[in-house]
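Why predict the complex rather than its parts? Because the way molecules touch one another can change local conformation, and only a joint prediction can capture that. The input here totals 271 residues.
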Amino acid sequence: MPPPPDPSAVFLNIPYDEEFQSLYIAYIVGLIQLGLAPRLASEIVGGDRRLDKIFKLIQSCRYSIHDLSHVEVSVSPAAVPRFNMPLELGMTITWQNLHPSRHSWFVWESEPHRIQRSASDLNGTDANIHNGTPEGVLSELLNAFRRDRIPSVPRMLEVYHFVEGNLTAILHRNGTHNPYSRSVFMELCWLSKMLTDLFRYTNPAV
Amino acid sequence: MPKSVYITARRPTLEEMEKNWRISKARKKELQVLVNEFKAQLSRREQAPMALIGPEKRRKRASAA
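Output of the joint prediction:
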């Protein structure tokens, strides 16, 4: 049996697409502002079988978000369906069924009712709909994770815009174009946390 | 699965969260520049309402304080 999960950790099962970049940053900023810790499969470094490591990462998280808004067939280089996200969702559902008190998962979509067409076995699962916008992600995060002293959406957006506006510089400094790379993800998290704490220090009421 | 949960766990500190993020001290220093920039942005915004008030009222407010 693995050790108990980190009560603040949220496994993000998202597409690593250029078009998803702004929503990815919104997830990071939003979760950190809610006092939660985003975790990403790209944090995993070489070694054993990747799937085993991803499963261990899911087991170490109390929550997971599975964003199925970009499961369509990829455009290039060759059109193939994308199975990684449904695969990781399947692993998570099994884990949660075996140990209900250790994990809660959420399915996110950009359009209402589309989940019933893309994964009809999930019928009965109420998806969180973000409408494909950063504002939608932030507002839905507030709906999904309720707690005391929550930030407002405008405040979350202010941090989001600042982090998003500095992404190019962070990518450049890390010598990559990939915002999902391990080093960039960690720096986005660190920056978001520092900005969030700054808000808390300047206004203790939030 | 529920569509929402109530979080009871306390918010992790920067030190606790940093255990998962391996960032060098030198890089943190560089990122701190961005933090300071955001701090300045917040501070400018807080002062902005004062700038909208005319000089007469500003003087009165300052002397009252």
